[in-house]
TrEMBL record:
It is an enzyme of class 3 (hydrolase). It is a single-pass membrane protein. This is Epoxide hydrolase. Biotransformation enzyme that catalyzes the hydrolysis of arene and aliphatic epoxides to less reactive and more water soluble dihydrodiols by the trans addition of water. It catalyses: cis-stilbene oxide + H2O = (1R,2R)-hydrobenzoin; 1-(4-methoxyphenyl)-N-methyl-N-[(3-methyloxetan-3-yl)methyl]methanamine + H2O = 2-{[(4-methoxybenzyl)(methyl)amino]methyl}-2-methylpropane-1,3-diol. The keyword Oxidoreductase does not apply.
Amino acid sequence: MLLEIFLTLALGIIIYLFLTRKKEETLPIEEGWWGKGQKPDYEEDTTVRPFKVETTEAELNDLFRRLDQARFTEPLENSCFQYGFNSVYLRKVISYWRNQFNWKKQVEVLNKFPQFKTKIEGLDVHFVHVKPSSLPEGRSAKPLLMVHGWPGSVYEFYKIIPLLTDPASHGLSDEHIFEVICPSIPGYGFSEASHKKGFNSVSAACIFYKLMLRLGFHEFYAQGGDWGWLICTNLAQIAPNHVKGLHLNMVSVTSMRFTQLLSILLGRYFPGLFGFQDEDVRRMFPFLKKGLYRILMETGYAHIQATKPDTVGCGLNDSPVGLAAYILEKFSTWTDPEFQKLEDGGLERKYSLDDLLTNVMLYWVPGCMVSAMRFYKENIGKGIGTQKHEKLPVRVPTGVASFPNEVLHTPQSWAQQKYLNIISFNFMPRGGHFAAFEEPELLAADIQQFVGRVEKEEPWSEKGK
């Protein structure tokens, strides 16, 4: 009798726990409408249309006229890039842009990869879609979504795409060959901007999720840095059963626990206590200089864009010189903070002027600087740590490529408070914020090894348990 009672109680407890267990929470898939006016009654056209970048003589003549009429302010003596973009070097950049830069040739470069547009939630979404030219017999390509940030564009990925779609021809292992999809964030490049308030990273993630499903990909990898970090993170929160792995070259945490705050004070002296490695200590401390001070010095733009983007955006959208200075200063300081001490900002040490100006043109030609800046207000304007996605963990397998010159270093012990399944965290030997643009070989190799670990260590059938 007692045994029967015990078994009945035990069974009841098991059933209760099963019925009341907390389900793994995900972000809801939004059904937004970001087009003009009210959402129409008829179904949206889901056609995927080929797209090519085009230019006209009138477009170039207007640009040249504005460049010819530029006004420059003399820099302070010996100021280099410490006050922003040095106008002595800016004159050189503008002269090159006006007299040597060949936009028509760069349009051909942009069009060497297949590009498309498709309507999603009322917006014309632009994306680059590159398939491997050939595959070994019996092999299939792994779909990889790559998302850019600000002030970048899909052009950041043009050097890494061949390394991923044809790795053997570039000295990399062909164990994993990718089919790469690089969408322009709505409001950036040739993707239509939202016509309504509220379009944030979760909105973009929902659109890119629908894009991948529309292209026939129900399992795929996602990779990003800058806004791409947050959009891909949100995508992993929305569709954890579809995102096989999440690879990031930038990680940020928006909420700090007491132990993390304590690690700022004591981590330099007791690194092991807080899970810090020697490289973490080197990159983080002294924290006042490498953490707090650098954030204060490098986020002024974000305060403007998160509050009044349209105000400063008017000037940048009207002046190609102002636009170039505003964008390219980031490619200097965010590549290496020591470049501030150089009169030319060190820009041509890592990039060519053709590449840098092509990226600028992807803001100038479509006139998208204001809408790109608004993305900051939509994501930060309501406050940091207030959104649902900021409180939800990420459970999909995650890999981090940590570059030494990233604006702020996030150690693995911090990152794993948010990303619960980090299976790869590697300190890169060199490079900064624009990893795919600056160090495509390093980033491609890290993506390759991460995917290898996912495929071997985290079978798809087991993920999420």
